[in-house]
Amino acid sequence: MEIKIVKDTISKEELKKIAENQFGDLIKAIKKIQRKKIFTSNWQKLSFYEQMGNIGSEISRALNWRDKDEKSYDNAIARAFELLDLTIADLRWRLRLKEIVRARELLADAMFGGKEYKTTFEDLNNYFFHFALAARINK
């Protein structure tokens, strides 16, 4: 495999061609990681209420898609877990870590039918809604 060093700006089409010919999915993976880094740094700028409210948006989205579109439902759940993990990693909320980790545990419980704690998506939607409301009031 030949490695091409790019010194100047190239078009998206040229990058795509290089990726297809030489690296397969490697370029896609790098772009995805870069996007996640940018998103993570922006996520860290949000307040606790804003972060939790955004997680609630994904819970609400999952609730909306639950019986309509399995792929959209799965994407919303995955996104809620991703946002919860980013919130858990945010050191500003270390004193609230127990609450955030418990919310993640309850999301998993709801996802598996509430077998352990009888958690429903409606319960979670109600819980997270108050954070979205607080974020809006505090803006």
Percent of residues in helices comes to over 70%
Low-confidence stretches: none
Q: How many separate domains make up the residues?
A: 2
Please give the count of helices: 6
- Structural class assignment: mainly alpha
Termini distance? 53 Å
Our estimate of the beta-strand percent is: under 5%
Total strand count, please? 0
Order of helices and strands: HHHHHH
Structure description:
It is a single chain. The chain is an all-alpha fold and 139 residues long. The protein folds into two domains: 1-43; 46-137, no CATH class. It contains six helices and no strands. It has helices spanning 12-23, 26-43, 48-65, 70-89, 97-111, 121-137. α3 runs antiparallel to α4. The longest helix has 20 residues, at 70-89. It is extended, with a radius of gyration of 19 Å. The protein starts with 11 loop residues before the first helix and ends with a helix. The mean pLDDT is 86.
Give a brief outline of the structure.
With 139 residues, the protein is mostly helical.
Topology overview:
Blueprint: H1 12-23, H2 26-43, H3 48-65, H4 70-89, H5 97-111, H6 121-137
Helix pairs in contact: 3-4, 3-6, 4-5
